[in-house]
Amino acid sequence: MNIFVVNSGSSSIKYQLFNWPDEQPLCSGLVERIGSAQAEITHRVFGAGAPAEALRRTLAVPDYEAGLREVVRLLTDGPTAVIQGPAAVDVVGHRVVHGGETFTGPTVITAVVKAKIKELFGLAPLHNPANYQGIEVAERLFPRARQVAVFDTAFHQTLPEYAFRYALPTALYTEQRIRKYGFHGTSHQYVAGRAAEHLRNPDARLITIHLGNGCSMAAVRGGRSLDTSMGFSPLAGLVMGTRSGDLDPSVLLHLLGPLGYTTEQVSTLLNKGSGMLGLAGSNDMRDVGRALAAGDARAALALDIYAYRIRQYIGAYAAVLNGLDALVFTAGVGENDALVRARACQDLEFFGLALDAARNENCTGGLRDISQPSSRARILVIPTNEELEIARQCATL
Ligand SMILES: Nc1ncnc2c1ncn2[C@@H]1O[C@H](COP(=O)(O)OP(=O)(O)O)[C@@H](O)[C@H]1O
Ligand SMILES: CC(=O)OP(=O)(O)O
Ligand SMILES: [Mg+2]
């Protein structure tokens, strides 16, 4: 069986094709800057005889349909072909960011499921519309395949009510479903599973720290999410690439009232113009690192704020878990940025956490332990693989 996994973002598509049940990736790739004449496709083929280098191509990709069509061409034609045609794909697994309270596990996509995903556009305006478009295009391009949705929110549906409810009048929850949902669940679930295996402890108390463009943390025990830093939307919690994370809600009222912002402007400011971009001038942590090395004071303060927020959540989640077996760093920043990891683990001796500076600096490859042997809890770096986790969940259906 072949499972094709699609992760449609606001301007990109990440994809991976797996042969099942051996979990063997046949190829993977990324289409960036969809909607531009200078879009870029990076495509990698795995297995015997495959070219070692990824293929990179710049071309016009006006929309998702054009992007996925190009990917299908790479899968089926010429030297990159790994399958005969679209009919060789049995299942298409889609990352869908918001599943509300309706979806607690992988779900075969029907007209009813699509309508529900559409209803949730307002709660995840940066993500669900793109995910939905990815589904519609995949239905056209892989008409024979079963389409399955795997929701970012599903893993966090185990949060106890006292953790997911806000202290607002009850009717706002019962009638309007205003509550904490949490996101990046597929990633937290995947790395928590890997960590528990590594520790040989299925009941491990873990704090998983996903630092990508969007950033979130989760408190996980026995493979169940007990709390997480994102909330009603993916805007809450940590400082992110372009999102503010936690704020006093009065700041919004001040922007909307005395400062005369429209709701649209506030949304753009908090989702797209804040975080590291707003503080340091770039949402890419590599730029912030370079600016810091060049003595830029704004970059130094931005990194202080970013790391301080992570440390606050480590403290909170150690309390939620009543102890800690491991801290797990993952995603683009968490896997690659030794300075961010070092700053996030600073001054946590109280919790018995001791980072090994050399292991942290020289850390490449798969799962790595970067703590000192004397550390009471392990500090792990585990590359996330949302696509593999999505394929596994599709296979369970
Ligand atoms: N070598 C690196 N050092 C520091 N940060 C990095 C490095 N490589 C990637 N990143 C960061 O990772 C981010 C993207 O992470 P990723 O998990 O791919 O995010 P997303 O899935 O949200 O697009 C980039 O914005 C960049 O800041
Ligand atoms: C939910 C979310 O924030 O996703 P991403 O990090 O991919 O933007
Ligand atoms: Mg991501």
From TrEMBL:
Which residue positions does UniProt flag as site: Transition state stabilizer? H184, R243
Spell out the molecular function terms from Gene Ontology: acetate kinase activity; ATP binding; magnesium ion binding
UniProt keywords, alphabetically:
ATP-binding, Cytoplasm, Kinase, Magnesium, Metal-binding, Nucleotide-binding, Transferase
Q: How is the cofactor bound?
A: Mg(2+). Can also accept Mn(2+).
- Record keyword Hydrolase present: no
Instruction: List residues binding substrate.
Output: R95
Cofactor dependency? Mg(2+); Mn(2+)
Give the similarity note.
Belongs to the acetokinase family.
Which NCBIfam families does the entry link to?
ackA
The protein's assembly and partners: Homodimer.
This protein is called what?
A: Acetate kinase
Which species does this protein come from? Hymenobacter nivis
